[in-house]
Write a structure and sequence with these properties.
The protein is an alpha+beta fold and 118 residues long. The chain is built from three helices and two strands, in the order H-E-E-H-H. The chain is 38% helix and 10% strand. A two-stranded antiparallel ribbon has the order 1-2.
Length: 118
């Protein structure tokens, strides 16, 4: 009822927007005087996070029902993952080779952008 009232009245309580930022040192760094040796995280109120998640689920459901996104959109979609994207890419390249088309893929190593990707 609380979340529905917030959505109905387009109100997001200000206390739910305040974040406590905690700076955490990254493990295994040789120089802790460099700013990139630390990772800031924002700690938000749980009720605000729950409401945002509920609204995001409603929007995602509406997008899926209306079939707004193409089927080859894999990011942030239910029942799809990185493996689905890789299999689709492999399928398209293999199919192109079978019908004697030239095809290939340009791949980027983005591991430097994200600390948790191998």
């Amino acid at each position: 009822m609380l979340f529905n009232a917030c959505v109905t009245h387009t109100f997001h309580p200000p206390l739910w927007k305040h974040a406590l930022v905690q700076v955490i040192p990254k493990p295994g760094k040789s120089d802790y005087f460099a700013p990139k040796s630390y990772q800031p995280i924002s700690l938000l109120d749980c009720l605000g996070k729950l409401m945002e998640k509920a609204i995001a689920k409603c929007i995602t459901h509406a997008i899926d029902v209306a079939e707004v996104l193409p089927p080859n959109q894999f990011g942030s979609r239910a029942h799809s993952c990185c493996l689905d994207a890789a299999l689709t890419l492999t399928h398209h390249v293999t199919l192109a080779h079978k019908i004697n088309w030239r095809s290939g893929a340009l791949l980027f190593d983005i591991s430097g952008f994200f600390d948790n990707i191998d």
